[in-house]
Amino acid sequence: MIMNEINYKGSCHCGAVQFEVYAPQHLELDRCNCSICFKSGYLHLIVPKSKFKLLQGNKQLSTYRFGSLIAAHTFCKTCGIKPFYTPRSNPDGIDVNAHCLDPAPTEYTITEFDGQNWEQHAHKLAHKSKDNN
Q1: What DSSP designation does 38 have?
Q2: Which residue of 22, 42, 95, 127 shows the fewest CB atoms closer than 10 Å?
Q3: Model pTM score
Q4: CB within 8 A of 54, min separation 6: which ones?
Q5: Do 34 and 115 contact (CB within 8 A), yes or no?
Q6: Given this model, what pLDDT does residue 88 score?
Q7: Which CATH number does 5-128 carry?
Q8: Residue 70: pLDDT band by 50, 70, 90 thresholds?
Q9: pLDDT tens for residues 29-58?
């Protein structure tokens, strides 16, 4: 863990799926305009897999894939919330829905990401899943 990182807890709505993630206190979040992110209101926090730990609920997760079938969108089978997933842009990382962090973060910057034109912009996210320890 880097010194300026803190441990965030998170969950789906019903609490069946719980996780923790290490990230800076001031979060750099992305809001994507692709169809799935826009419709679900997902707010992206991409981290290296080493910064994420599923605490409970693995058997409660269901996976949805579409398009290229690379991204693994995981949902709670009970409440339908997508608290995290493995993104196409960063298959070596985890993309946490910042709306699922408990308590909600208070220090963050949101960058708009043009996911409707994913092929032209995906490279802008590649660095986010690199472990800098």
Answers
A1: H
A2: 127
A3: 0.89
A4: 17, 18, 19
A5: yes
A6: 85
A7: 2.170.150.70
A8: confident
A9: 999 998 888 999 999 999 999 999 999 999
**What number of other Cβ atoms are within 10 A of residue 104's Cβ?**
10
Count CB atoms within 10 A of the CB of residue 93: 22
**8 A C-beta contact, residue 78 and residue 60:** yes
How far apart (Å, rounded) are the C-alpha atoms in residues 50 and 55?
A: 14
**Structural domain spans, the chain:** 5-128
Residue type present at position 16: A
Cα–Cα distance, 34 to 95 (Å, whole number): 15
Per-residue pLDDT, 3 = 59
Q: How far apart are CA 81 and CA 100, in angstroms?
A: 9
CB 48 within 8 A of CB 93: yes
Indicate if the alpha-carbon torsion angle 112, 82, 17, 89 is positive or negative.
negative
Per-residue pLDDT tens digits for 84-114:
998 888 889 999 999 999 989 999 999 999 9
Tell me if 111 sits within 8 A of 128, measured CB to CB: no
Coil, strand or helix: which one is 51?
helix
